[in-house]
Design goal:
The protein has helices spanning 19-22, 31-46, 58-66, 75-97, 112-115, 117-132, 155-166, 202-206, 222-234, 249-254, 268-279, 290-296, 339-345, 353-357, 374-378, and strands spanning 12-17, 50-55, 104-109, 136-141, 170-175, 180-181, 193-194, 196-197, 238-243, 259-262, 284-288, 307-312, 319-323, 329-334, 370-372. The protein is α/β, with parallel strands linked by helices. The protein folds into 2 domains: 4-266, Carbamate kinase (3-Layer(aba) Sandwich); 280-378, Archaeosine Trna-guanine Transglycosylase, Chain: A, domain 4 (Roll), CATH 2.30.130. Helix 3 crosses helix 4. The longest helix is centred in the first third of the chain and has 23 residues, at 75-97. It is globular, with a radius of gyration of 23 Å.
């Protein structure tokens, strides 16, 4: 399970950047700081790590561009500011990353994209493809279209949900303080820094207090960061909370500068498989032949060629049972086709699927999306 000392070994990281770091007091992007952070991110990419950024700042930058001076904006004004600021925000990221040979890709999400299974599957596929191409996805909430009822509420939570979605090893929350203290260190000189947290108890969460009242922009605080850490922890992702207001905050953590680590409670893969096995109600059943059953037990994906028939009504992204010829359960998985299309491609080889459907989404169930039943894991065929 990843920790501060494990940052160099993490396969995949999500780095959340707040408005207070990225936007200056006058409402312009803090390009000098952003350029330094881009160099820090490029260092991680150069050693083969995949990095995704969750970036606030669109509303704060858009306020300035639109001349909205009131501290409290109406929802339509926030949406207008987001629309005006998002392009400027992405331009700042592109200009910071480009000198390092890195391509930035804008990804705008709403809460449904990480909460509704089908949309979650589509969003994950897009981000996975971008990461595989060596791109740095820059994620933000789609503030232009969301309403208060369907908002994440803060980008700390968005970052945690994204880390969960892509199976990240480490979530880094760049803050205006260098971690969690027993009290607010700006008010209590006796506050003690907590370098490591294994369990997010009520006592620990009480130390976080409310939102950061001293921040000029942004809505987050230590309480939202611990709430995000709880989401990440359950997904097998460690969370690092550290001071962002320095040129190379990730390098600083690696070299021993102060930070708080909230340990993961499991691994990302194990957490995801447990979610599939225990949290999703199966909407249908796929019956597989003996060859497919044997392949699944060795960690392979479920190909259409090995499926005899599909039962039930399910959509892409739903959970389904996978059973053998004798009706015994082999596992449960997230299916990549709806029931109608699944029935049409049963028994087909992979290279024949596109001709039949007009598209292909790969295997019926990818190995990463399949949780084998405990008995099958214990007694592999």
């Amino acid at each position: 399970m990843a920790a501060v000392s494990d940052l160099p070994g993490a396969r995949r990281l999500v780095v959340k950047v707040g408005s207070s770091l990225l936007v200056r007091a006058d409402g312009a992007a803090n390009r000098e700081w952003l350029e330094a952070l881009a160099a820090d991110l490029a260092r991680l990419r150069a050693r083969g790590q995949q990095v995704l950024v969750v970036s606030s700042g669109a509303v704060a930058i858009g306020r300035r561009r639109l001349g909205l001076k009131r501290r409290t904006l109406t929802l339509p004004e926030k949406q207008a500011a987001a629309a005006a600021g998002q392009s400027a925000l992405m331009r700042a990221w592109e200009e910071a990353l480009e000198p390092h040979g890195l391509v930035a890709a804008q990804v705008l999400l709403t809460r449904d994209d990480t909460e509704v299974r089908r949309r979650w599957l589509n969003a994950r596929a897009t981000v996975e493809t971008l990461l595989g191409l060596g791109v740095v996805p820059v994620v933000n909430e789609n503030d232009t279209v969301v309403t208060e009822e369907i908002r994440y509420g803060d980008n700390d939570r968005l970052a945690a949900r994204v880390a969960q979605m892509i199976g990240a090893d480490v979530l880094v929350l760049l803050s205006d303080v260098d971690g969690l203290y027993t009290a607010d260190p700006r008010r209590d000189p006796d506050a003690r820094h907590l370098p490591r947290i294994s369990a997010l108890t009520q006592e620990i969460e009480a130390m976080a207090g409310g939102a950061n009242a001293t921040a000029g922009v942004g809505t987050g605080g230590m309480a939202t960061k611990l709430a995000a850490a709880r989401i990440a922890q359950s997904a097998g992702c460690a969370t690092v909370i550290t001071l962002g207001d320095r040129p190379a905050p990730l390098l600083a953590v690696e070299t021993g500068e102060r930070a708080t680590v909230v340990e993961a409670s499991t691994t990302p893969a194990a957490a995801y498989k447990a979610w599939i096995a225990g949290s999703l109600a199966p909407a249908g059943t796929l019956w597989v032949d003996a060859g497919a059953a044997k392949a699944l037990l060795t960690g392979k994906s479920l190909l259409a060629a090995g499926v005899r028939r599909a039962e039930g009504r399910f959509d892409k992204g739903d959970a389904v049972l996978v059973v053998g010829e004798d009706g015994s359960e082999i596992g449960r998985g997230v299916v990549r086709y709806d029931s109608g299309d699944a029935a049409r491609i049963c028994g087909l080889k992979s290279d024949a699927i596109e001709a039949e459907l007009g598209y292909t989404s790969g295997p019926l169930i990818h190995a990463d999306d399949l949780a084998l039943t405990p008995a099958r894991v214990a007694r592999p065929a």
